[in-house]
Design a protein that fits this description.
alpha/beta; 7-stranded mixed beta sheet; 9 strands; globular
Length: about 210
């Protein structure tokens, strides 16, 4: 039987609660800053004003978008991460990807950096549909994840306790999932050492 998102939630929450303080000290690598800036430039060019960050972590990206003038809501599975978002002045809420707790068509944009790689393949279509549901028609969705090959399970090098579940996907598989719910505006790969980061900008059809 394939693993499901509900099977991994408790351990993910525990791992990220325990790692929140250390993560809040991380500085963004230049390539991450460039990815975020490129998406913000698209939003600005289209006159977008509101943004939902999912898997928001400690709120560094949410704070960036707030400082750029956007109305931001952040959600994260981890109460400790949400507390750190709120300490930065972010409207942050505890929620998971299958129950975002937001009305339909309530935001112009969604930003998800390295969080949907915790969703098993079996539940990714439902999660993407749920993200589409909260986006306004024509809205933009930034999806960035590690991947490039197929893997489902924990990894030996994970420093979190308990070890987190990861779902990595080939480029072809990830694009196929994305096209099931969105139009693909941009897809490119960023090479980071031996790793591959998959960057997608997606649009909800009008």
């Amino acid at each position: 039987m394939s693993i499901r998102y509900g099977d991994v939630l408790a351990e993910l929450r525990q791992a990220y609660d325990g790692g929140a303080a250390e993560r809040d000290t991380h500085e963004k690598e230049p390539w991450r800053v460039a990815e975020r800036a490129a998406f913000e430039a698209r939003l600005r060019a289209e006159g977008r004003r509101s943004l939902l960050e999912i898997g928001a972590g400690t709120g560094q990206d949410s704070r960036f978008f707030m400082d750029a003038g956007y109305e931001v809501v952040a959600v994260d599975l981890s109460p400790e991460m949400v507390a750190r978002c709120r300490a930065k002045g972010v409207d942050a809420r505890v929620a998971h990807f299958l129950d975002l707790g937001l009305p339909e068509e309530s935001t112009d944009a969604v930003y998800a950096l390295n969080c949907l790689l915790h969703v098993p393949d079996a539940d990714l279509p439902a999660v993407l549909d749920n993200i589409r549901r909260v986006l306004r028609p024509g809205g933009l969705f930034y999806l960035g994840v590690w991947g490039g090959r197929h893997h489902e399970g924990d990894i030996d090098t994970d420093r979190h306790e308990p070890r987190r579940f990861f779902a990595w996907r080939t480029d072809e598989a990830l694009l196929a999932y994305a096209r099931g719910s969105f139009e693909v505006e941009d897809f490119h790969v960023v090479g980071v050492g031996e790793f591959q980061f998959q960057s997608l900008t997606l649009r909800r059809a009008r």
